[in-house]
Amino acid sequence: MTVDLLLGLQWGDEGKGKIVDVLTSKYDIIARFQGGPNAGHTLEFDGIKHVLRTIPSGIFHKNALNIIGNGVVIDPVVFQKELEGLEKFNMDIKSKLFISRKAHLILPTHRLLDAASEASKGKAKIGSTLKGIGPTYMDKTGRNGIRVGDIEMTNFKERYRALADKHEAMISFYDVNLQYNLPELEEEFFTAIEVLKTLTFIDSEEFLNQALKVGKSILCEGAQGSLLDIDFGTYPFVTSSNTTAAGACTGLGIAPNKVKNVFGIFKAYTTRVGSGPFPTEDFEEAGDIMAKVGNEFGSVTGRKRRCGWLDLVALKYAVQVNGVTGLYMMKGDVLSGFDTLKVCTAYQYKGQKITHLPYNIEPENVEPIYTEMKGWHADLTGMTSYTELPAELKAYIDFIEKEIEVPITVISVGPDRKQTIIK
Ligand code: GDP
Ligand code: IMO
Ligand code: MG
């Protein structure tokens, strides 16, 4: 019986999908605990590249069961497309993908509300993926939401209509000119609901706890990153769920004392997509090189990701909030070619040097203090063992481990499953 967590420690897109796929063979069950189709988790193996949105990243493995937990929000329309995208792989998805009845549904009007809210904010917009995430979680906590289990109830359509009508009234309050054809969106939605109904709905907290009792092992897959957490992220420029370790307990119904390892994933540098503060963002050549070499374009929206140096102040904070027991460093290969690397080890904050993440990290309050390190030029992408890595990269890894006080156990040197070095 094991429950391990795997989550992102920065602003998302750290490479969670790749690592879940790499680890799946060690687990019986892979369970997504929060977020929804705002996530884009990329997997690459055997020359295939695939991006998953709501479906857990263990789906390509023969024996693992994949669970979409109660903490996830599901857009049936996106989900249907996701299933269609997997058809070519000829997998028996229905036998290995179960959905929590308590997961909330994203309605077409949630997406419209997201668009209206963002448009009304002008320059202060969050930079949302516009997938309806915020409005759906608002209905969840406001106790108005519709859940997967409601599809099985006789009054599902009435409940849908009442909520959609309320949303339409809300949309009209926004002073924005939103063009939409709701009947068309609804037709698409109800067709997708029929597809969703072909999958197995479960009481997932019961299912998972019974699985633990008979000795099964579970890997909980996080979405987004710790700095996008609704409580601990750079609010209000965050997502609407708890992306940190506690979110796995509430998002799956697994008690905290059942959790063993917390694997924290971070990029060897930092990226962020959407608005919000980013102290180590690099507006010069280095940021452009990271974006280009790292192919830093959003897997969901295609937006260019903002890039900058590794921020150990923020990383230390994320490690603390999550209780990380092992670190996975991703995309080390992208840093090959720099003569000098910068690592942020402290902030200048209101005239003082601090090493913790303060309440507000907007540029007017925070200036990063960097330590410079020697870079490396070797191409890492074909390396398969720790001993092969250049001395400068080993020094970079040692430095991070000393600062963060948690071991780096895996170094990823390329997008493929095989480009993964265990230290
Ligand atoms: P996720 O949301 O955390 O699953 O990450 P994404 O899939 O959105 O973004 C990570 C991107 O980096 C994807 O395009 C991956 O294929 C790619 N990737 C993952 N690990 C590595 C790595 O070690 N090196 C390189 N160059 N790319 C990687
Ligand atoms: P994965 O799981 C990176 C960002 C958006 C925006 C903010 C709020 O692939 O790492 P939302 O749509 O949730 O209302 O957007 O959060 N964001 C992500 N950034 N990776 C993600 O997921 C993200 N999911 C949301 O860009 O700034
Ligand atoms: Mg992503």
Model description:
- This protein is an alpha/beta fold and 423 residues long.
- It contains eleven helices and 20 strands.
- Strands 9-7-5-2-10-1-11-15-19-20 form a ten-stranded mixed β-sheet, sandwiched between helices. Strands 14, 16, 17 and 18 form a four-stranded mixed β-sheet that branches.
- It starts with a strand and ends with a strand.
- The structure holds guanosine-5'-diphosphate, 6-O-phosphoryl inosine monophosphate (IMO) and magnesium ion.
- Residues 8, 12-18, 39-42, 44, 294, 299, 330-331, 333-334, 412-415 line the site of guanosine-5'-diphosphate.
Topology summary:
Elements: E1 2-8, H1 16-23, E2 29-32, E3 41-45, E4 48-52, E5 65-68, E6 73-74, H2 76-86, E7 97-100, E8 104-105, H3 108-121, H4 133-141, H5 156-173, H6 182-196, E9 200-202, H7 204-213, E10 217-225, H8 245-252, E11 259-267, E12 270-272, H9 285-293, E13 306-308, E14 310-311, H10 312-322, E15 326-330, E16 340-349, E17 352-354, E18 366-374, H11 391-404, E19 408-412, E20 420-422
Parallel strand pairs: 1-10, 1-11, 2-5, 2-10, 5-7, 6-8, 7-9, 11-15, 14-16, 15-19
Antiparallel strand pairs: 3-4, 12-13, 16-17, 16-18, 19-20
Helix pairs in contact: 2-6, 3-4, 3-5
